[in-house]
Each structure stands twice: as structure tokens, then as C-alpha cells.
Amino acid sequence: DTLQEVYLYLSSHNALHQSIKRIRNVNLPAVPESLRDLVILKNLKKILNSSKFLVKDSIVDNN
């Protein structure tokens, strides 16, 4: 009986999921709209031996 009373005060699974999603999105950077908007942090540009992570970039055709 008390368990059913507790359920009345709990949020639905969907409501909890949406709340968690909103909180996570606050901490995420904005999604870049183009490659020019893409910011790669300095510590992610090199691998462990200090060589560049990305040696050459290329454009891949969609076909």
C-alpha cells in the first residue's frame, strides 16, 4: 500500500529521461554547423608521442 503511494509522487520514466537529457546538453558544446565551426582542443591534436593526430585531411565525395 505504501509502495503505491510512493509511485504517485515519482516522475514518469519519460519525464526523468527528458530531465537527464536537458542536464547533459547543458554541459555539451554546441554542434558545429560547418567544418569552420569545429573546434578541436589543443590536447586532442596530438597523440601520445607528440606527433600530430591528423596528418592530412581530405574531402570524401558523397557518391
Automatic annotation (TrEMBL):
Task: Report the protein name in the record.
Answer: 4538_t:CDS:1
Give the species: Funneliformis mosseae (Endomycorrhizal fungus)
